[in-house]
C-alpha cells in the first residue's frame, strides 16, 4: 500500500488510516452509537471476520471500550459513507491473545471499514450536562449539611465524567473544562467524606485531584486534614510545608501547620510516656518474678537443711 494519504492516528504508527472513499457530513463524537460494515483480514490477506458476509452491520458505542483500541481511534475520524482501511498493530488490537487459527497472537489487523450511520443524541455532551446538574445538586445538599446526599450526587456526577473518553476529544478547550470538572468533583468528594469522617476515602480523592493539579491549594489542605485525622501528623506537616512553597501567604495552611506540629509533639510525648510506663512495668514484673524465684530457692535450701 502506498504511504500517500495515510494518517497516523495513534501518533506512534500503531493505528493508521487510508481513506478509499470520501464521506459527507460530520464525524461521530465520543459516546456516539455507530453502525459500520467491515471486512477484517490479517496482514497476509487471510479474512478472519466480515459483517458483509453476514449481511449484518455492526453497532457499538464509541469510546467505551466495546471494541479494540484501534477502532475507538479510527471510527471517530470517519464521516457517513466514508470507506477506509485501518491497519492496527497488536498493541491496539488483540495483543498477545489468539483469536483462533486464522488470527494468531500478536497479529497485525487490517480492516476495510465503511461508516453507515451514527446516532450522537447521547454523546459526551449529554454526560457533561448531566454531570454539571448533579454537581449543582450536590452543592445544594452540602449547603444544607446533608453530606451523605451530597456525596451521592458528586459520585454520580464523577461517574458520568469518567465515562467520557476525554483523550479522544478534538478541542483542547473542551478537554481542559472536563479535566477541571473532574478535579473539582474529587475535591468536593474529599470535603464531604471528611465531614462524614471517612478520611481514608477522602485522602484517595485528594490524591486524584492532585494528580490533575499537583499544587492545588484545596487539594493539599484537605489532604493534610485527612492525614491529621488519621494521626499521620508527620505526613500532614510535610503536605502543608509542600503547599506553602507554592502558597506562602495561605493563612489556613500556616495555622494548620502549627496545629499539627503541636499535635505531633503531644502525641510523641504521650507515646514516649506510655513506652516508659510499659518499660517500668516490665522491669517491675521482672523484679517481682526474680524475688519470687529467689524466695522459692531459699525455701528449698531451708527445707533441705531441716531434712538433714
Automatic annotation (TrEMBL):
Pfam family name, one: FKBP_C
Key words, A-Z: Isomerase, Repeat, Rotamase, TPR repeat
Span of domain PPIase FKBP-type: 31-119
Broad enzyme group: isomerase
Matches recorded under SUPFAM superfamilies: FKBP-like, TPR-like
SMART domains tied to this protein: TPR (SM00028)
Catalytic activity: [protein]-peptidylproline (omega=180) = [protein]-peptidylproline (omega=0)
The protein, known as: peptidylprolyl isomerase
Organism: Anaeramoeba flamelloides
Organismal lineage: Eukaryota, Metamonada, Anaeramoebidae, Anaeramoeba
Amino acid at each position: 500500500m502506498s504511504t500517500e494519504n495515510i494518517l497516523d492516528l495513534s501518533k506512534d504508527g500503531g493505528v493508521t488510516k487510508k481513506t478509499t472513499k470520501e464521506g459527507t457530513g460530520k464525524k461521530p463524537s465520543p459516546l456516539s452509537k455507530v453502525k459500520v460494515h467491515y471486512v477484517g483480514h490479517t496482514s497476509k490477506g487471510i479474512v478472519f471476520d466480515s459483517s458483509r458476509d453476514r449481511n449484518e452491520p455492526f453497532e457499538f458505542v464509541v469510546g467505551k471500550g466495546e471494541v479494540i483500541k484501534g477502532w475507538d481511534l479510527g471510527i471517530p475520524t470517519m464521516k457517513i459513507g466514508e470507506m477506509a482501511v485501518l491497519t492496527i498493530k497488536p498493541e491496539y488490537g488483540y495483543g498477545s491473545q489468539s483469536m483462533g487459527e486464522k488470527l494468531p497472537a500478536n497479529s497485525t489487523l487490517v480492516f476495510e471499514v465503511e461508516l453507515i450511520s451514527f446516532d450522537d443524541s447521547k454523546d459526551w455532551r449529554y454526560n457533561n450536562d448531566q454531570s454539571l446538574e448533579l454537581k449543582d445538586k450536590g452543592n445544594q445538599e452540602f449547603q444544607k449539611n446533608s453530606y451523605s446526599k451530597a456525596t451521592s450526587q458528586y459520585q454520580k456526577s464523577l461517574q458520568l465524567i469518567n465515562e467520557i473518553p476525554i483523550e479522544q476529544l478534538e478541542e483542547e478547550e473542551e478537554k481542559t473544562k472536563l479535566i477541571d470538572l473532574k478535579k473539582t468533583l474529587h475535591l468536593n468528594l474529599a470535603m464531604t467524606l471528611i465531614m462524614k469522617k471517612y478520611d481514608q476515602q477522602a485522602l484517595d480523592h485528594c490524591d486524584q485531584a492532585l494528580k490533575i493539579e499537583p499544587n492545588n491549594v484545596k487539594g493539599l489542605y484537605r489532604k493534610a486534614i485527612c492525614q491529621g485525622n488519621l494521626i499521620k501528623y508527620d505526613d500532614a506537616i510535610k503536605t502543608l510545608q509542600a503547599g506553602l512553597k507554592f502558597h506562602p501567604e495561605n493563612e489556613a495552611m500556616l495555622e494548620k501547620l502549627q496545629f499539627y506540629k503541636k499535635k505531633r509533639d503531644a502525641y510523641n510525648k504521650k507515646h514516649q510516656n506510655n513506652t516508659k510506663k510499659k518499660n517500668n512495668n516490665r522491669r517491675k514484673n521482672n523484679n517481682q518474678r526474680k524475688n519470687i524465684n529467689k524466695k522459692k530457692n531459699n525455701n528449698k535450701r531451708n527445707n533441705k537443711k531441716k531434712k538433714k
